[in-house]
Amino acid sequence: MAKFGLIGKNIDYSFSQKYFIRKFELENLTHSFQNFDISSIEAIKSIISKNKNLKGLNVTIPYKESILPYLDKIDKEAKNIGAVNTIKIEKDNTLTGYNTDNYGFAKALIEHFPISNKKALVLGTGGASKAITYVLDALSFEYKCISRTKGDNCLSYNQLSKNIIEEHSLIINCTPLGTHPNINECPSIPYKYLNENHLLFDLVYNPSETLFLKKGKSRNARTSNGLKMLEYQAEKSWGIWNS
After folding, report:
1. Domain end position, chosen among 99, 120, 148
2. Which among 3, 64, 118, 215 is annotated as catalytic?
């Protein structure tokens, strides 16, 4: 029996565990899946040493970048992205890092084509946003990253004007804002400038309709949560673990 798992912080709500347990049941596999809720990335060492039958891990917030120094090898694409969300534990116990978020996001986003224009706003600058901007580059989108403070190649939320909102048809929430149980939170953008030409894509999937998406829908924008993206990336991870 092989064991798989997820490492992250405050991950009781996690999609991965439910998804893979259900998958194992449907496919009559005797594998198990465990959440490793850790307060520091250094705990990865003891997780690997104590779980001898562990074959693969998914990585979620806030460890997609801080995991990198603990890996023996990093796939070229994950290296280019600068973040890892999938780890394959090799037969010699070495750790190889991959990124399947980019695959999941690309596949989920393309289902919403055509989009009014190929201009996007990316809310947040953490590990999740790195896979998103990698895909936007590949799909020839122009984009601006939005953070709480202005920086290099990055606008602050209070710089978001009517013109900027109206010029960018795709707005992607890469922050955890709005995740259960904090369902009354949302990114601080001027929602009043949204219209039917916008697509709001939220990487959050619990709740299925976040306040960010509700506010978009009230302005007639199209909306999508992160569930499809997660399903696609999970299957890609499964393929890597079994390769």
Report:
1. 99
2. 64
